Each structure stands twice: as C-alpha cells, then as structure tokens.
Amino acid sequence: MNTRPIFLALLMAFLTLHLFARDYLATDFGAVADGSTLNTTAIQAAIDQAHSDGGGRVVLTPGNFVCGTIYLKSNVTLHLESGAILLGSTNPDHYLKDPYCRWTAFIFAIKQENVAITGAGTIDGRGYEVAVNVVNLVHQGLRQDPLKYDRPGAENRPENIHFRECDNVTISGVTIKNPASWNQQYDQCRQLTIENVTVDATCFWNNDGLDVVDCSDVVIRNCYIDAADDAYCFKSHSVDGVSENVLVENCIGRSSANGIKFGTVTRGTFRNFRFHNITIFDTYRSAVTIASVDGASVENIEIDGLRSINTGNPIFLRFADRNSGKVTPCLRNITIRNMYAEVPFEKPDRGYSYEGPVEDLPRNVSPSIIAGVPGMYVENVRLENVEIVYPGYADTAFAYCGTTAAELEAIPENGKKYPEFSCWKELPAWGFYIRHAKNVTFENVRLRAAGPDYRPAIVADDVENLSGNAVEIVGGQTGKKVVAHQVKNLTGFPIE
Predict the structure, then answer these.
(1) Degrees (nearest 5) of the Cα angle 68, 73, 76?
(2) What is the biggest distance separating any 2 CA atoms in the chain, rounded to whole angstroms?
(3) CA 155, 318, 309: angle at the middle one, nearest 5?
(4) Contact call for residues 209 and 227 (beta carbons, < 8 A)
(5) Label partner for 394 (CA 20 to 30 A): which of 87, 148, 181, 338?
(6) 392-425: b or e for each residue (b if 16 or more CB lie within 10 Å)?
(7) 446 touches 387 (CB < 8 A)
(8) With a threshold of 0.90, does the pTM exceed it?
(9) What does the pLDDT look like over 427-470, one tens digit per residue?
C-alpha cells in the first residue's frame, strides 16, 4: 500500500493548522497598551502581516490599546485576552467612513472570509465622547452634517463593528460597548456566528445592540444585550437581499426601543427564523416587532420560549406599505409559543441613560397588535401557550376609543407611519387588537388585566378565520370581552 499520498495530506493539514494557529502579538508591531498612544498603524500592520502569511491570530494582551479605524482581513482572528481593551480614540478624525459601505466604523471587514473576533477582552468605542466631538466639529464648520434631532447622522458616527459581504464570520466571548452609532452591523454576510457576547450600547442615540442585514445561515446564542435602541435587530436594505436560516437562542435583551425587531428597513426577503429561550426586560417598546412595511416578504418565523418582563408592548406584527419594494410582499406564517409577558403601567425604561421618547400621547397602555392594511393581510399567525398580564386602569378621561362600528372604522390605517405599536395612539382593546388579518389562531392563551379597564380584551376588525381554543380572559371590564367587526368565521372566543 502506497502511504505517501496519505502522509502528504496529513502533513499539509498539520502545516495548515500550524499556520492558522500562529499568533501575532500587537506589541511586537509597536503597539503600546498605555491608554494614550494611538495604535492604529501598529495593529493594522499586525493584521496585514497575519493575512499576508496566510492567516493567524492578532493578539491584544492585557492593557488599554487606543486605536482608530482598522480593517480585519481574510483568515485573521483579532483575539483580545482577558484584561485587554481595544479603546476607541476620542478624535473623530481617527475614524474612516468607508466609501463602499458609506458608514463610519471602528472595525471594518469588507468582502473577507474566515474572520473572527474572539477572547475575553473588551472593545470600547467611547462613543459618547466621539459623538460629542463630532457635534463640536460641525458647529465649528469643520464637518458637514444636518444634525437631525440635534445629533449627527448614524452613518457619520463610528459603529464599533461593521462587516460587509463576509463569509464565515465568528464573534465570540468579547464585550462590545459604548458605540457612537449602531454597535455591530453585519451586512450581506454568510455563515455568521455570534456567541457568548456581552453588549453595553447605552451611551448615545441610535445605539442598536446588534443589526443583522440581509444575512444567511446565522447563529446567535448565549448573548446579553443592553441597548439604547433596538437590541436584536434584523433588516433588509435591498430588494434583492435575503435573510434566511437564522437561529437566536438563549439570549437576553434590554432596550429603550424593541427587544426583537424586524425592520424598520424591510425591503428584501426574510424567511426561516427561529428564536428559542429569549428573555426581554425593562424594554420601552415591543418585546417582539415583526414588520414588513417597505415591500419585504417575511415568512416562517417561530418564537418558542419568550419571557418578557416590564416591557411596554408584548407583540407587534405589522404589514403595511410605507415604501414600495417588491411586487408581492407578505407577512405570514408566524408562530409564537410558550410566551409569558408582563406589561407595566409606568414607563418600563425609566431611569436608563437614554430613555425611549414619550410620544404619541395621550393614550392608555396599548394592547398587542396584529395589523395589516386593506388588501395587505397578516396571514397564518399562531399563538400557543401564551400568557400576558396587563396593568389595566385605562382612563376614559385620559384617552378614549370606542367599539361601535363607526368608531372602529374611524381608526386610521397609518400605513405610511413609522411602524411602532403606539402610532395609533389610543386603541379600543387592552389585550389584542387584530385588524386586516387571516387565519389567526389562539391556542391556550390567557390574558389577564391586573386592574379594571374600560376596553374589551380583544377587538377584531376585518379578520377572516379567527379561532381559539382554551382562551381565558381574566379581569378588565365587566361587559363584552371580545368585540368582532367584519369578522368571518369566529370560533372559540368568550363573546358575551
């Protein structure tokens, strides 16, 4: 037997493994971890050398490495040891706005493969200081920015991480904090794994925790995200974009916006998403927002095991036509099972550094919402083993919306509005408001109002096939618990 080919193959495998396991210490390239020396050139040189040699790990040892924009390259892992901090420069001129991505970022990777950021260290963008310095430059006439809402555009403030069109990406173990804009954006990436990552993105406006844009074959697990804006956010920026085969499991999120959100830019295709064992707490808007408002096709979404505590709104499913994108958009095949939620009477993110805005008042506490617009129906929604506790105490003197046919038909469609559960102001139900939907199933669903509420628990308007089994409604008003208007085939609900 000729063993030479086998030997050569094993030798090549060994050499390849050895090559990719090689470490490049940033300090060997002149980096100084003193918290003041600018190390951009040194760290980039280490990355370039590892890439040129065929791959390896660029290692940051314990200490504070101040840095501006760096570009990660194929077959290179940026590894932060415990105690290592990659510290963003506070000088806005030390960050690049990439001409291809048209975003500013601390760490870029563009059209690369086999890239990773690993370790037990920290990436700290010092985003508040950077953003304030950008504002000062604008006021001095040294930078151009409209300063909409008195802050620079999100694309003109550095994100901590921006990866574009990369294959085989791993982000593992690190803490990523204090971005000036979105915290991490992965755009059109494939084979993306984000695990055991801690995010503190609460230092400035638009601090999304995680943005996954038109990506496929994604695993996000064992992550903790605290964000001033959306925590786990999935977007589509292109009508040709596809987001598919996404698993999010064993994750925790807090947000002064939404916990889990599809959108708000939703132009392409979303399909085959599964969320398992998720906790959302102290969140201002919705625990779950799934929206198609820019022409997207959104289908086959499963949420199994969601605990939402002290969150302003449990479920918001929205299908509308804010912007045209595709010829045949849809929002369908949504399953939410094994969910427990508690909605507070007071503002749920009170006391956090950047609270969600007090907007769309007057209104009482809003219900969960499943809403399309005429001709665009949310389809095939199943709620199974769901319990939601609402505070009650809606006050007709504060805001009022009745349930007569005329009053229900007078509720605006708001198809062009930004998709948030509060955009209607007052709604006529305390538990669920369902409008322009088909094939909605409640299986073992319990809705409880802790205090009295002038509204019925459920209002359904223009719904086809609304079925329930083991639906329990506790508390609220003593009159009708369910109001149905223009509903075809209603079964299993306690209509009085």
Answers:
(1) 105
(2) 91
(3) 85
(4) yes
(5) 338
(6) bbbeeeeeebebeeeebeebebbbeeebbbbbbb
(7) yes
(8) yes
(9) 999 999 999 999 999 999 999 999 999 999 999 999 999 999 99
Q: Judging by beta carbons within 10 Å of its beta carbon (0-12, 13-18, 19+), is residue 166 exposed, middle or buried?
A: buried
Q: What are the E-state strand segments in 323-454?
A: 330-342, 368-371, 378-390, 432-449
Give per-residue pLDDT as tens, 107-142: 999 999 999 999 999 999 999 999 999 999 999 999
For residue 167, what are its two tokens? 């294959």
Task: Give the span between the Cα atoms of 168 and 115, in whole angstroms.
Answer: 7
Cite the beta strand spans of 129-207 per DSSP E. 159-164, 167-172, 175-177, 184-187, 190-195, 198-201
Are 441 and 464 in contact by the 8 Å Cβ rule? The answer is no
* Mean pLDDT, residues 239-248: 96
Residue 194 vs residues 223, 264, 278, 339: alpha-carbon distances, Å: 8, 22, 15, 24
- 59-to-15, 33, 400, 476 alpha-carbon distances in Å: 21, 12, 60, 59
pLDDT, residue 17, reads: 42
Place of tokens 């939907």: 437
Q: 296: which 2 tokens? A: 């997207």
Q: How far apart are CA 337 and CA 445, in angstroms?
A: 10
- Say which residue the tokens 């708001």 belong to: 414
Tokens of 147: 């300063």
Q: How far, in Å, CA of 50 to CA of 75, rounded?
A: 8
Q: Please name the residue that has the structure tokens 């390849």.
A: 16
Helix or strand or coil: residue 120? coil
Specify the 3-state DSSP secondary structure of 95: coil
**Residue that the structure tokens 């559960």 belong to:** 421
Lowest mean pLDDT among 208-217, 297-306, 318-327, 482-491: 318-327
* DSSP secondary structure, 454-489, as one string: SS-SEEEEEEEEEEEEEEEEESS-SS-SEEEEEEEE
Joined together, the tokens standing for residue 240 give 């040709």
198 token code pair: 């801690």
